[in-house]
Structure formats: C-alpha cells, structure tokens
Amino acid sequence: MNIANDSFDVVIIGAGGAGMRTALQLSQSGQNIALISKVFPTRSHTVSAQGGITAALGNIDSDDWRWHMYDTVKGSDYLGDQDAIEYMCKNGPEVVYELEHMGLPFSRNDDGTIYQRPFGGQSKNYGKEQATRTCAAADRTGHALLHTLYQQILRAGTKVFSEWYAIDLVSSIDKDSISGVVLLSIETGELLFAKARAIVLATGGAGNIYQSTTNALINTGDGLGMALRANCVLQDMEMWQFHPTGIAGAGMLVTEGCRGEGGYLLNKDGVRFMEHYAPSVKDLASRDVVSRAIAIEIREGRGFELNGVQYVDLKIDHLGEETIKKRLPGIRELSIQFAHVDPVEKAIPVVPTCHYSMGGIPTNFHGQVIKTDRNNKDKIVNGLYAVGECACVSVHGANRLGGNSLLDLVVFGRATGMHLEKKSEYTTPDLADVDKILDFYHKLESNKTGENYVDIRHSMQKTMQDHFGVFRTQESMQEGLVSLGELRDRLEHVVLKDTSKIFNTNRITILELRNLMVAACATAYSAIERKESRGAHSREDYPDRDDNNWLKHTIYHLDDLISYRNVNMSPKSIDTFIPKERVY
Amino acid sequence: MGSIVKSNRGYIEFVIQRLSAIYMALYVLAILTVIFINKDLDFEIIQDLFSLMPVRILTFFFIVSILSHGWIGMWIIATDYINNAFLRNLYFVLVMGMILFYLVWSIEVIWGFE
Amino acid sequence: MAKVNKLEFSIYRYNPDDDKSVYMQDYTLEFDIEQNLMLLGALERIKDELDPTLSFRRSCREGVCGSDAMNINGKNGLACITPISSLPRKIAIRPLPGLPVVRDLVVDLEIFYKQYARVKPYLINRQPTPKKERLQSPEDRKKLNGHYECILCGACTTACPSFWWNPDKFVGPAGLLQANRFIVDSRDDAELERLQDLQDPFSVFRCRTIMNCVEVCPKKLNPTKAINNIKKEMLKIK
Ligand SMILES: Cc1cc2nc3c(=O)[nH]c(=O)nc-3n(C[C@H](O)[C@H](O)[C@H](O)COP(=O)(O)OP(=O)(O)OC[C@H]3O[C@@H](n4cnc5c(N)ncnc54)[C@H](O)[C@@H]3O)c2cc1C
Ligand code: SF4
Ligand code: FES
Predict the structure, then answer these.
(1) Confidence band (pLDDT; 50, 70, 90) for A306?
(2) Three-state secondary structure call for residue A320
(3) Could you tell me the sign of the dihedral formed by the alpha carbons of A358, A359, A361, A366, in that order?
(4) Residue range B104-111: average pLDDT?
(5) Cβ contact B–A (≥3 pairs, < 8 Å)
(6) Which domain holds residue B79?
(7) Residue A255: which residues within 8 A CB-CB, separation 6 or more?
(8) Which of A105, A424, C35, C85 is least enclosed, having the fewest CB within 10 Å?
C-alpha cells in the first residue's frame, strides 16, 4: 500500500442534507470528523428539492404525528418499517423547529408561524380529510435547507473535503467491520486512505440509471456500489418512485406543491382525469397512483404529443399570478426555461419521471447498516452507517410521500450523529483491500483499447427505461436483464481516454458508471423476483398486492442472489397499522 | 483573511467623502449665486468679499474638503491598481506632498502673508 | 425531418498536467434545432462525442446548484440555463474571470468561498431557544426574498472589477448579499457586530456601483441594492 493515509473518528461521505445534518450533530462532540463530498456541499442534490418537508406542526390545521405516521405507512403500501416510521413522524416537529432555529427561511403564515401546504397522501384522522402538513420555503425548500445546514457547518468549523471522491470501502482484517475508505482528490488526483472508527454513507440517489430523471447528473448511487462491494446488501431496490410531474422531454421536476396549492392535471380532451382514478382526493393521491394514471391516459391515446414526446397538462394558471409568484416562483422559472411556457398563462406539459429510490442500504433507525447472514438473520455491520436517500431505514417502503425525504434526511441524520457521539474502537484495516482498490484504479488507467463508456451508459439507461419503468412484466424484464448482463461485462473493459491527474472528470464519470451499473442490476434482479404489485412496483402480470407472500423486504446480494427480510410491524408507542386495501 | 484589520476607517472615509462632496457643492453654488447677483462684478468686490472672516473660513473649509476628498480618492485608486508596495508608497508620498503643498499655498492665498 | 444545425465552439483549454500552455480549441457540433438544447447539453455532447478530456463542473442541470458558471461570449452565466438558441452560431467559452484556473473551465473558487464565510453567513440569535419556531411576520420574511435564493455560483463576484483588484480584501457582491440577508433577518440579533465587521476601507466600500453583478446574476438578484442597504444601515447606527 503506497498511498498517503490519515485517520479520523468519523468520515462522512456525502454533504447533502443527510450528511451535513449528521456532521452537525457530531460537531459538538469534539471528535475529529471529515465531511467528504464530490461536489462543493451546496451543489449536492438536496438543493433541488422544492415542495417542502413534512411534519405535524399543526400550524394551519389541527394535526397529530400519529396521523402522519398512518399516512406514511399507508403510502408505503405497508412495506415501510413501522418502528422507523414512528420514530421519524414523532421527531418530525422537533427537527423542523431546529432547522428554523438554525435560520432556515421558511415561508410564514400571518401569525408568524411556519407556512405549511397540502401534499399528496397526507390526511387527518387516519385517512379522513386532506391534511396541510408540508412545511415550505416557497418552492425552494431543499435549497434553503441545504444552505442553512452548510452555514451551520461553517459556523461549527467542520473539516470539509470538498471535491473529493470516495472510491471504495476498506474492511477490517476479520471482515466483520468497516475500517476505512479510499478517497481521491478530484482537483489534484491525490489518493488517500482514510482510516476511521466509523464511516457514514450519505451519497444520495441513483436516478441516472434511467434515461429520464429529475435527479442531478451527480446522483449515481456511489454509496450503493461501495456498500455492495464491501459485502453489504441492498434492500427493496425494485422500488423506484416515478414522480407524476416531470417536465416532458426535459425531466426537471415540477413540485407536487403545485397540486397542493390547487393545480390539477388535464388530458387532451380537457378532462380532469384524476377524478376517475382517485375520486376523493383526486390530484393529491399518492405519487404511484397519479403516475400510473398518467401512464394509462397516455397509453390509451388521451395524452398530448409534441415532437414525439407524449405528455399531459398540469394547469395552475387559475391560481393567479400573485400566488404563483409568491408560492411557486422557482417552478415558474423552470417552466419558462425548460418547457417554454409561463404557467401564469398556460399549462405545463408533464410526464411521470424517475425521481426517488425508496430502496437502498438497509439500516436500523440509528443509521447502523444491517446485513443478513446465511440464515436470514439481521447483523449489524460494525463501523458502517448509512443515511438519506442511499439508505433504506425503511420509512418509505414501496412508495414515498412528498416531503418525507427531507424529513428522513434530518431525522435520521441527527439520529446517526447522536448514535456516533459515543466513540467506538478503531478496527484493523485489511490492507489487501486497499491494494485491490489501487489495482483496479491503475488497471483502468492502463486499458488502452476497449469499450466506450458513453455507449454503455446510454444503453443501460435505455434498458432501464424500457424494461423497468412504470409498468413491468416478466417477459420484458427478462429481456432487460439479459442486456444488463452484457452491459455489465462490457463495463469491465471500459477505456479511460483521459489519464491526467488534474480535475479528471472523465475518470470520475467512469467510476460513477460502475456504481450506476450496480444500482441498475440490483433494481432489475429485485424487480423480477417480486411477483406482485405494490406501491411503485407495478406488474401487469401480477396486478394485485399479495400480503400473504410478499409483505417482506427484498435483499440483493453481491452475487445477484435475492433473499428476504421481515417488515417491522411493531411500533413502540402505538398499535400496529394492519395492511388494508389502499384507496385514495 | 489575515490582511483584514478590523477598523472603521472605511466607514469614516465614506462619510467624509459624502459630507465633503455636499459641502463643496453648496460652496460652489453659493459662489455662483454671488457672481450671478452682482452683474458688475469687479476685483474690488471680490477682494472685499474675501476679506470677510466668515468667507475666508468657509473657503478654507472648501479647500480642506477638496483635499481630503482627493486624498481618499487617490488612496483608493492606488490600492486598486498599484500592487507593488514600494511604488504605492512612493505614490502616496508624492500625493501627500502635493496635498500639503496645496494646503499651505491656499492658506497663503486666503490670508496672505504680506 | 429533424432540422440540423451546425454550432461552432471555441473553448478555453488549459491543463497544468500536460506541457501545452493556454489555448482556445475549436469544436463543431451538429444538433437538431427542434430539441431545445441548453449550452450544458452541448458541452456534455462535446465531452461524450468529441473530446473526453474537456473538463467543466456540473450537477443539477437546472440552474439551482451553481456548478457551471462560466464566461459565455464574454458574459458570465450558467451553461445549464443558457439556451443554445439564445446564442450566435459561434460560441466562445472561457472560465470565470479573475480566479486561478485549475483546468479548462474549472476555476479555483477558494477565495470566493472564503469571502462568503467571512461575513458569518449564519443566523446569530442569543436569546434562549424557544420550544417551537421563532415567529416572523410575512412582511419580515419578505425582506429575505432576493437574498436567500443565491446559489453561490460566483458569476457576480467574478464579473466585478473591484473584486479583480482586491480579491483578498473586498468581500464581493455574493458575500455581501448574504451579509445583508442576515442583517435584514428579523430573527438575527447580531446586526451591530455584522455592520462593525464590515467598516474597513475594503470589505464593503470597494463597491463602486459598477453593477456588473446585477447584470450577470442568473437568479436575477440585486447585490448592489443589498450593498447600498448595508451602507445605509451603517449610517443609522452611528
Ligand atoms: C427535483 C427533486 C425535488 C425534490 N423535492 C423534494 C421535496 O420537496 N421534499 C422532499 O422531502 N424530498 C424531495 N426530493 C427528494 C430529496 O431531495 C432527496 O431524496 C434528498 O435530497 C437526498 O439527500 P441526501 O442527503 O441523501 O443526498 P444528496 O443531497 O444527493 O447528497 C449526496 C452527497 O453525497 C456526495 N457523494 C455522492 N457520491 C460520492 C462519492 N463517491 N464520493 C464523495 N461524495 C459523494 C455528493 O457530493 C453529495 O454531497 C426531491 C428530489 C428531487 C430530485
Ligand atoms: S448573487 Fe447571483 S450571480 Fe452572485 S453568486 Fe448568487 S446567484 Fe450567483
Ligand atoms: S448544473 Fe447546477 S446550476 Fe447549472
């Protein structure tokens, strides 16, 4: 092993909402922390979140965290772990107040309290009327949250490794724990082995496995790849949320807040079709429901078409110019830039677009990573934590409710930080792991001929889009799986054309593609195994939910094998929510 | 940023610049008014006017305003464009010398040393 | 049926790792004008199809993360929200001016971030923390509009001649905009010390209302107005 090394108490990989909230919690503990991010912290994808963060503050209407919990369990199509959901909803108000105290510029009600808006799938009294629960800073909540957290990180003086890329984890000699990570400085090409008592993965989503996504270009599932290669497992990877309203042809998200403020969807006949699919809450049904409705409308020929792109209309002009400018200024900007329509005058063209990964690295609600042994028993991976979108606690189950992800980031970021306040011991790293990583790294440099990464990436994205989209069938997925297998083999022989040390984005792209491929394969293998329809996973050959056989988490292993894990049905302070049919 | 010293000099200079600018404008206006009112202005009248103590004092303030305004402006320009410390200091010495010279000269003009 | 058009790019190249010095490299790209391509999309295509060694930063591709500020035909802007259709057929792209270049279009923003950190860009409130939120009226909240939306892209600060001359001493428009964001926040009680911290001859007073910042800001913010407000507030405290 001939690279520089350093040691820290905690290394946090990822400076989005989840990573920074974790770091902030630890900043008071006097520990030596390194916060690693492949982009400057405020460029992380949390910055794009628009609509809000959901918590039962009850500022506008009476509310109770138990109602929020009910909605989240129901929204997850009962695949969410009820102990974790309970923890999240109960702590929601407190973490939101904390954010406010840090200075987050929430929009306000007339009485000076935090503004809240209705979001899909949120109800009062266990499924009765629509609730108003999602706290918002106009339609820039993620931006406001991310900048506020970064400001606090500055204040705390946390050590930030900005524009450093984490390549892979290093196990301990006995292979039971994680002992460190190999990092690459993007700016200088310097490699560093960082030893740590604990590593936190907070690397965010992997939406770029699909052709059309609301995700930033840097959302490449790096944490998923790292965890799997370190012999951990991935959970519920078949569960990808397609957001109903991505700008057609471009992919940018149009927040659910538009419908929360009173916007609705229209097909080409001018019909408000959600009235048929979800008679009681209409356009504010859960995202999986609305996305499927749009997909059906388009498939049955009731969508619009322009330049080969099919879509439906999202109408908000009736809200009036003033409301749009005050509550949805960012949406107006995006819509003018990317759809060439000013929503004050015309409807925005939208289609379901890949948005969020409910699955990820399984953890408990202290953020500790869990893997399953040969007898399907849970086992905590010493020294490794995961939090945020790359983790699967699982609070979102088979379908995430809007505004629950930002909440997930801060609740479990804080919980992870609190758990790490007690120092653990260093474990002895297996230096053979480091050598293996370096071998791979140098081999990539020496490949002179071989596969072009662009082709592989495009084909992978197309395969995922065509075979693992909103609707899935055995046959189509089987085909998809074959091409993914070929692509994965080709990726072994990829060439790196640029071998410079300085700010080599070509190298980073290829390292990222390796992780995307892991996420894509995990998705495909998990999806084909789950023979039912639940939440976002919707199979035409198995259209119904099957609680007898499938009320369980899917676990994907390094060798493409699938096993299962029980769903937690035992909240601590409230009765279990028993699976019921899910109607909106 | 080590080079930043906490001081309120920038603020004071900002205020001096504004105040001196206002004062200069008023003074010039006053003089112009005098010229305008007295159609048949000649040397005698001017001499009489400037022999009045208040006028001399106001004029002296006017000169001080120009010079302080000028000094601040020249200082700012130098700290923008002259990076070499030696050249910048040399420039400061020259400008300061000029300003002192003007100051003495203007005192002589206003009060005279017959 | 697709209408094809040719675009000519001339892009600033520099890599300290090879022996060539700075030069402008030309690329020609064909694209379908029906697709409303943004400049970032064009750069991605150049990298994917023509030259994988071209380096630039990017992330959100929708104008909210601030990664891809660059100098486009002489004016700073974000590549991802600059439509190709708004540009002439010949496009010259350079890194942001006034900062050291790391490679190609990537500049070293360290001093820009330091100037941001210098204004203590975080809420300071020394009152006991309430159990719930601190109240703020919608009118007081409105004062934060035009400030908090800043994405720290650096387009404004690197377009400012005063920053070019004194990057280590003049905070620059982006930093000052955030200084004012906390000065006007009704929840912040450190206004006095914030103002006192900025009273030296450089930090604020180097702003000469050239207004380049207002002209280039992709979020349509107005740092000059914020800077004037800081000066005004200083007059009030004396
Ligand atoms: C357009 C859009 C709108 C959304 N709106 C909402 C909303 O209104 N409400 C809501 O609750 N949720 C919303 N979401 C979801 C939510 O924003 C995300 O799930 C969440 O921000 C993810 O946060 P994170 O901290 O896990 O990851 P991110 O914010 O994505 O951060 C990941 C971090 O990891 C770093 N990283 C990744 N890989 C590496 C590596 N290999 N080495 C070093 N660093 C690495 C990155 O640099 C980054 O700092 C939205 C999502 C999208 C796409
Ligand atoms: S003020 Fe505007 S130009 Fe300046 S950094 Fe912020 S967003 Fe960019
Ligand atoms: S890529 Fe984020 S602002 Fe352009």
Answers:
(1) confident
(2) coil
(3) positive
(4) 88
(5) no
(6) 4-111
(7) A50, A51, A139, A245, A328, A331, A402
(8) C85
Number of the ligand 2 atom closest to the C-alpha atom of C66:
8
Same domain, C48 and C18: yes
Domain that holds residue C84: 4-107
| Chain B residues whose beta carbon lies within 8 Å of the beta carbon of residue C115 | 1
Helices A404-420, A17-27: inter-axial angle, 10-degree rounding: 30
**CATH number of the domain that residue B48 is part of:** 1.20.1300.10
Q: A287 catalytic, yes or no?
A: yes
Three-state helix/strand/coil letters over A519-545: HHHHHHHHHHHCCCCECCECECCCCCC
Cα A237 to Cα A519: distance, rounded to the nearest angstrom: 8
Instruction: Assess whether C115 and C196 both reside in one domain.
Output: yes
Residues 6+ apart with CB under 8 A from A300: none
Q: Which residue, of C75, C107, C139, is where some domain finishes?
A: C107
- Pick C134's closest partner by Cβ from A101, A109, A334: A101
The CATH number given to whatever domain includes residue C178 is: 1.10.1060.10
Q: C205, B7: Cβ pair inside 8 Å?
A: no
**B3, B5, B7, B8: which to substitute to probe chain C, counting the most C Cβ within 10 Å?**
B8
Checking if the pLDDT of B5 tops 90, the result is no
Closest partner residue to C141 (CB to CB) among A107, A187, A334 is A107
- Give residue-wise pLDDT tens across range A502-553: 999 999 999 999 999 999 999 999 999 999 999 999 999 999 999 999 999 9
Best mutation target, A149, A338, A495, A510, to test chain C (most C CBs within 10 A): A338
ipTM tops 0.90: yes
Question: Looking at the 3D structure of chain C, how many domains does it have?
Answer: 2
pTM of the model: 0.94
Of C107, C123, C144, the one marking the end of a domain is C107
Structure-token pair, residue A220? 């490449």
Report residue A68 as tokens. 């929020």
Ligand 2 centre from C36 Cα, in Å? Answer: 25
Q: Among candidates A570, A576, A572, which has minimal Cα distance to A90?
A: A572
Give the total number of structural domains in chain B.
Answer: 1
Report the atom number in ligand 3 closest to the C-alpha of C218: 3
pLDDT at A583 (0 to 100) = 83
- Nearest CB neighbour to C122, from listed A140, A154, A250: A154
Q: Which strand (E) or helix (H) includes residue C70?
A: strand C69-72
Cβ neighbours of residue B29 closer than 8 Å, sequence gap 6 or more: none
Which ligand 2 atom sits nearest the alpha carbon of residue C154?
A: 5
Secondary structure (3-state) at A383: strand
H or E, element range at A308: none
3-state SS, C112-155, equals HHHHHHHCCCCCCCCCCCCCCCCCCCHHHHHCCCCCCCCCCCCC
Which residues, including other chains, have CB under 8 Å from residue C96's CB and lie 6 or more apart? C69, C70, C71, C76, C107, C154, C155, C158
Cα–Cα dist C222/C213, whole Å: 7
One domain for residues C84 and C143:
no
Annotated active-site residue in A287, A400, A490, A565: A287
Among the listed residues A384, A385, A388, the one whose alpha carbon sits nearest the alpha carbon of residue A410: A388
Residue nearest to atom 8 of ligand 1 (CA): A51
Residue A61 to chain C, least CA–CA distance (Å): 16
Q: Which residues of A touch C135 (CB under 8 A)?
A: 111-113
User: Are C120 and C231 in a shared domain?
Assistant: yes
C84 Cα–ligand 3 center, Å: 15
The verdict on a CB contact (< 8 Å) between B10 and C204 is: yes
User: Is the preceding omega at residue A500 within 30 degrees of 0, hence cis?
Assistant: no
Report how far residue B109's alpha carbon sits from residue A515's, in angstroms, rounded to the nearest whole number.
83
State whether the beta carbon of C223 lies less than 6 angstroms from ligand 2.
Answer: yes
* Cβ of C7 below 6 Å from ligand 2: no
C117 & C222 share domain: yes
Atom 13 of ligand 1 has which residue's CA nearest to it?
Answer: A49
